User: Which sequence fits this backbone?
């Protein structure tokens, strides 16, 4: 019985520490998706980079414990957080544009090392990232969640109060179906929906600049209308976006005049207007 009480007390203490640390962060933005492969991490990374470029102090937490890709997209693979042995805390790794970044990938032996953990262990790691990381005072902390509505997503939604939720989808029916579930989860938990982003909405030919609706277009906007949540905008599919993401070069910086970057700037402005109003 005493061991049970000790664990309960430890959990309560950690929760208080998390709450105290999060109070130093003005705005929290949670990036979610109903399924994988819709460009959720691309949206999260470029949102963080753009906010930093606008002069904001920004952190990004990679909550996808078993599939952490944020370091790859920021060209930060192989880096390690600085550990403070006295306070048993650590400092997130400093990335481009002075981003403060934390990811499970920083703790793995290599980028091919699998994380074979059940839910409780993954949730424990997330709580550790929030409680023991010295994020300091931030304007924004961006959370890149794993796809779906599983344990990690539920845990973050319960821990973080006052966050704005962005759901990323593609125009295909299967992605839209899953994105609706994600939106409804956020609504059920009483979280503030910033809106839906429709990614890969039309393919932009790198030679002629013509847009072709390979994956369809407009599905995200229709879903937002049906679910009565804001539609933040659509981002076209461009080959350079994919190439630069693989090279760890955020498209919002590398291709500032591309259709994707221009569309994304409007999305970021909408997010700012809501969060900072």
Assistant:
């Amino acid at each position: 019985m005493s061991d049970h009480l000790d664990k309960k007390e430890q959990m309560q203490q950690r929760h208080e520490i998390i709450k105290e640390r999060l109070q130093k962060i003005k705005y929290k933005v949670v990036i979610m998706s109903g399924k994988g492969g819709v460009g959720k991490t691309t949206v999260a990374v470029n949102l963080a980079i753009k906010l930093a470029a606008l002069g904001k102090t920004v952190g990004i937490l990679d909550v996808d414990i078993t599939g952490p890709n944020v370091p790859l997209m920021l060209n930060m693979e192989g880096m390690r957080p600085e550990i403070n042995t006295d306070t048993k805390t650590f400092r997130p790794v400093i990335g481009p544009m002075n981003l403060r970044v934390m990811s499970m990938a920083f703790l793995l032996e290599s980028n091919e090392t699998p994380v074979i953990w059940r839910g409780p262990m993954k949730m424990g790691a997330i709580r550790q990232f929030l409680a023991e990381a010295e994020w300091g005072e931030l304007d924004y902390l961006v959370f890149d969640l794993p796809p779906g509505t599983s344990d990690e997503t539920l845990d973050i939604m319960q821990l973080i109060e006052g966050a704005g939720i962005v759901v990323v989808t593609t125009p295909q029916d299967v992605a839209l179906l899953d994105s609706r579930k994600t939106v409804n989860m956020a609504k059920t938990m009483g979280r503030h929906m910033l809106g839906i982003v429709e990614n890969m909405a039309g393919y932009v030919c790198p030679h002629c600049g013509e847009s072709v609706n390979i994956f369809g277009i407009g599905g995200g906007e229709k879903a937002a209308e049906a679910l009565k949540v804001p539609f933040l905008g659509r981002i076209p599919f461009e080959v350079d976006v994919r190439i630069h993401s693989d090279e760890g070069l955020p498209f919002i910086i590398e291709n500032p005049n591309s259709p994707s970057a221009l569309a994304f700037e409007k999305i970021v402005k909408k997010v700012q207007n809501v969060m900072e109003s």
